[in-house]
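Could you please consider the sequence and fold appended to this message?
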Amino acid sequence: MSAATANHTVGRRGDRDSGPVPRAWAGPVAAGLTLTITGAIGAGALVTAYRRAEWGQEGAFSWFWAGMLVFTLPAAWWAVRRGTGARLRLAVLIGYACFTYLPKLLRNPTGPLYHDEYAHWGQSRDILLDGVLFQQNSIIRVIGDYPGLHACVASLATLTGLTVWHAALFVLILAHVLLALGVAVLAGQLWPDPRIAAAAAIVYSLNSSFLYFDTQFGYESLAIGVLVWALVCALRAIRATALTAGAGWAALTLVLIVAITATHHLTAIWLTGMLGLIAVACTVFRLRAGRTAWALTLMAGLTVTTWMAAVSPRTGSYLEPYLGRALGQFSGLAAGGGSGGRTLFSQSVAPLWEQYAAFAAPPVALLATVGAAVLWWRRRRACDPITKAGSAAMLLLGALYFPATLLILTPSGAEGARRSWAFSYLGIAVVTAPLIIALLDRARHRISGSGVLLLAMCALVMVGNTAAGMNPSYRFPGPPVFGADTRAATPELLAAAAWLRETQGRGARLVADRYSGLIFGSYGEQEPTTGSESFPTYDLYLAQPGRPVAPALIEQLRSWRFEYLVVDRRMAEQVPEIRIYFETNEPIPHNGRPGFTPSQLTKFDTLPWLIKVYDGPHIAIYRFDFDRLGQRIRLGAR
């Protein structure tokens, strides 16, 4: 070999070792640098937003969305880019899922904050301490019947030595990542294009529950990810041509169905319905695979029905108010009676641009869904039969999102509507992803008008859906606010709960309002009740001074061995931020004025069968002494 040839060869090796980055690595390096920098900037902006909100400074909403979008939009671009490889796309989706958990992680990194979190945290802690499943929960009466999440968290805490809260964070972050990846894999079962799969994951992340509700310490946060993977396994079973392969995927689907059923009632019901939609679509298109789809639907239905009948017969009565009363209220609105409605963003501190985005997000989703339906119709003959049936089922699922948005106009239906969006949006994500890629493929340049428009729509829908799904007090820290679940843990309430636990022990039955009950039932380790139609404990507070309390209620309290009554005198001074004192269907007027008078809440000082054992600036605790019933009312307070 000549010297010239040798020098040329060494020069090429040197280029590989120290020269410019090879073209194969250019994309991953650029993506890594871009997303690392934007991720750091975004995280810093989120911290700034929370700091400003905590100190009552302006600009919290702007800083928050600047932080979210500075990472979200580049991540979406890299995920659906033509030149992105499989490994890079996977890394982008994992990074995106982790980043979208940051808002909730930064919101409360050390302990429970949301209403449901207090219940699930306490339930997991009780399992860790006592080692007993299916214990009753005083905050949410049915969660003890669905121990999947709590058993998982308690087991991890036992094995690792982590606290219950940190074990829950590990489980929930993993579940959040698997949810995003599961949506991509589900879309990939229908369309082989990995860009469509990535687009579906990004679109699904725009739903109102993704950033906050399905990241909280709650059973849906774990169950909804399992639901997506159960649908993946079901489609694999339907597609299988070999008997053994089909049986294997069906068996795995059944295992996941049982896991979901033992974790969350609503997710199990939605899974059964989704499998039913797939089965109907297969039947309509006359596919032999419809037998498998119907078998899976039957297995899901039997599992859910058996569990609810044998383990949790109370689930039906627990879920009924969210739909039954909502439909009644909505009928009143439709009839023009003017009753039963609610005003969206009433007295909200959210900026107008966020409110406008909330109103604009459903029409954008409707436009995208209609476009996806048109594209599906045009391509239906080119699709394989399973893709045609599966995408039709997802289209029907996505269509359920739009009537559910109307239920947000009713007080009882608002909560049910919000909880349905996380499921119906799965259909929107899967069917609109091919439309997004089709629009991008029409562009001749990397940065096109359609690409910029799609990113703008992505930003608008993410902002609008999040604003519609969560109140600002849930999303941002701030000073204590009466009647806000996330700001209920005031120093006074925590001190009162700690005093009762330390002086009287744990497990005492007590009557309380919604917000006191959260703290006494979690940190205080007591068993509060906040009332219901069959046990109207709020009648104690509503009774006028000098008027007797209903004997039937007193007998219930006595026979069920209730020991204490907690009174928060702020109920006569302020209006709850979320317009609830005790429970959703309480018979208390909500007209912008406090629902109680001071005399209604101080009358307990004069009742002989109540003994005040604790008195603070706003919180008082009384002990029931039912043996003194019938004695004369004392004049003046003790």
Observations:
- Residues 25-318+348-475 form one domain.
- The chain has two domains: 25-318+348-475, 485-628.
